[in-house]
Structure to design on (544 residues):
């Protein structure tokens, strides 16, 4: 029991403390690839610290939903992170729910964020939330199909079991169903974290912004909470991608060296995936909003193909 | 067992490449730019050649090597080069206008894949699995899917050149079916098919040029009008 609590606390701290660094690293790497110097990778910590110390401006028209949303978003994202296996094959809260709970906890957070954006009655907020919901509605089927593909091969929707089932199987990553599901999930990751072909995380000025439009009315500590949970969400999705498809490195046996090497490999996997995100962001231009459904429909069909090909090729 | 003679490894690689071929076919459906479509087709043909090469390696059949080399030279180098040159020559607009929009076409391709699976599955079950002689048999549904999506592409495109491309990808499906079921046809038949395709493309490129000269467009729907 105490071990589970300790595990949950440690994993929570890991997510809280490392997620801004991951966002910062992505930003720095992106700047370097574009031959800019870019901010230091530690910049997100400074931003969060600054925002947490500042005062807040709350719109007159805001209702309690506006005040509740940052906390709901933050706690649901963190809870979702505790449902995913990070360093150990077993997730700390795995007895409370599987991958479905994870996906829909993130969905609950998004729902409240969209509600809060509508709440203030600003034009940008309404626009942002309507776009966010459109993209979410298109990304979710692709996400679920990809997740179900892995669940079907593993025979469980519990991410810990899904990871454990794959540990002994060699060549599993090369199976077509897994590859296709991985690609579908990667596209969904880009859409869900507001990365470049779908949304531009670095702009506040364009009419095309999605996530930034929703949080335009927030300031001070509440903005810090939302930004922080966006980083955590990104890390959770990257973790899901890394550990569902490349689970060989997860620690299952106790012992300090095993845990340390598993932790190092976990961070390495995250960095590699983040590098892939950076490459996609640098080599692509942002899509017109009306072309985003095309991208997501491709992701959906890839997910569907992944599911079909588990039968097509006999699961191999 | 060394990796390169392990049939399980060969099976995994063939399955993987077949899956990528299928994904490329769907990319072809989603792709709007003509030049990128040609590159996608070249890559698809290269993967087919690789599949044929892998099968040849594990079965030791010489004529499949020939088919692999011919596929590589003809379909992934020569034909794309001819098509690219044609695109540069007549300076056509890059966007092709399909009849159905991209999300709908992509979803239809997904459903066609499902149909291909349903059609090919009974055939597949009659064949034995696990032995080296069944290598690549499970790519039959992919071949049928390539075939069906190729037909759909032809029906869905208006421009003559993109229809040529669709025809070529359909032919890729035939090649994959032949290679996965019977380990390739006799060499003389293969040669016949290859030259058939080559001549077809050459004739079609001329035809495309003529259509463009006569109508100032490659839109084949204009051909059905009586007066221009």
């Amino acid at each position: 029991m105490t071990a589970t609590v300790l595990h949950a606390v440690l994993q929570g701290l890991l997510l809280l403390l490392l997620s801004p660094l991951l966002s910062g690293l992505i930003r720095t790497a992106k700047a370097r690839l574009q031959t800019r110097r870019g901010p230091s990778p530690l910049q997100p910590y400074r931003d969060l610290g600054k925002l947490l110390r500042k005062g807040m401006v709350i719109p007159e028209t805001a209702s309690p939903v506006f005040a509740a949303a940052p906390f709901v978003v933050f706690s649901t994202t963190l809870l979702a992170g505790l449902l995913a296996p990070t360093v150990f094959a077993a997730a700390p809260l795995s007895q409370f729910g599987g991958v479905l709970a994870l996906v829909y906890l993130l969905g609950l957070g998004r729902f409240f964020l969209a509600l809060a954006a509508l709440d203030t009655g600003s034009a940008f907020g309404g626009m942002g939330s309507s776009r966010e919901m459109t993209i979410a509605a298109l990304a979710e089927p692709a996400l679920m199909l990809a997740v179900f593909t892995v669940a079907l091969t593993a025979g469980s929707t519990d991410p810990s079991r899904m990871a454990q089932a794959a540990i002994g199987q060699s060549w599993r990553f090369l199976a077509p169903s897994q590859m296709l599901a991985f690609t579908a999930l990667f596209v969904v990751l880009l859409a869900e974290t507001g990365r470049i072909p779908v949304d531009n995380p670095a702009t506040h000025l364009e009419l095309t912004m999605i996530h930034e439009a929703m949080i335009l009315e927030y300031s001070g500590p509440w903005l810090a909470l939302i930004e922080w949970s966006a980083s955590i969400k990104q890390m959770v999705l990257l973790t899901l991608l890394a550990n569902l498809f490349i689970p060989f490195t997860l620690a299952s046996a106790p012992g300090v060296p095993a845990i340390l090497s598993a932790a190092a490999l976990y961070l390495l996997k995250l960095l590699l995936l983040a590098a892939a995100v950076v490459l996609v962001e640098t080599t692509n231009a942002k899509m017109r909003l009306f072309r985003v459904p095309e991208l997501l429909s491709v992701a959906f069909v890839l997910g569907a193909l992944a599911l079909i090909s588990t039968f097509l090729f006999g699961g191999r | 067992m060394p990796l390169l003679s392990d049939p399980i490894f060969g099976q995994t690689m063939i399955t993987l490449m077949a899956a990528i071929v299928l994904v490329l076919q769907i990319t072809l459906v989603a792709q709007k730019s003509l030049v990128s479509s040609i590159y996608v087709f070249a890559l698809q043909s290269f993967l087919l050649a690789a599949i044929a090469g892998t099968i040849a390696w594990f079965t030791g059949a010489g004529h499949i090597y020939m088919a692999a080399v011919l596929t590589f030279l003809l379909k992934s180098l020569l034909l794309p080069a001819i098509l690219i040159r044609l695109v540069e020559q007549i300076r056509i607009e890059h966007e092709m206008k399909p009849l159905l929009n991209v999300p709908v076409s992509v979803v239809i391709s997904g459903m066609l894949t499902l149909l291909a699976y349903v059609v090919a599955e009974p055939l597949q079950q009659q064949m034995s699995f696990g032995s080296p002689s069944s290598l690549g048999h499970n790519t039959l549904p992919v071949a049928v899917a390539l075939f069906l999506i190729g037909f759909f592409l032809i029906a869905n495109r208006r421009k003559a050149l993109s229809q040529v491309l669709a025809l070529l990808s359909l032919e890729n499906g035939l090649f994959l079916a032949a290679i996965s079921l019977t380990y390739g046809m006799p060499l003389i038949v293969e040669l016949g098919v290859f030259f058939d395709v080559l001549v077809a493309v050459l004739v079609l490129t001329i035809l495309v040029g003529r259509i463009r000269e006569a109508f100032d467009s490659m839109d084949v729907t204009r051909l059905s009008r009586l007066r221009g």
Summary: Chain A touches chain B at residues 171, 174-176, 179-180, 183, 293-294, 297-298, 300-302, 304-305, 308-309, 311-314, 316 (CB under 8 Å). The CA atoms of residues 257 and 263 of chain A lie 10 Å apart.
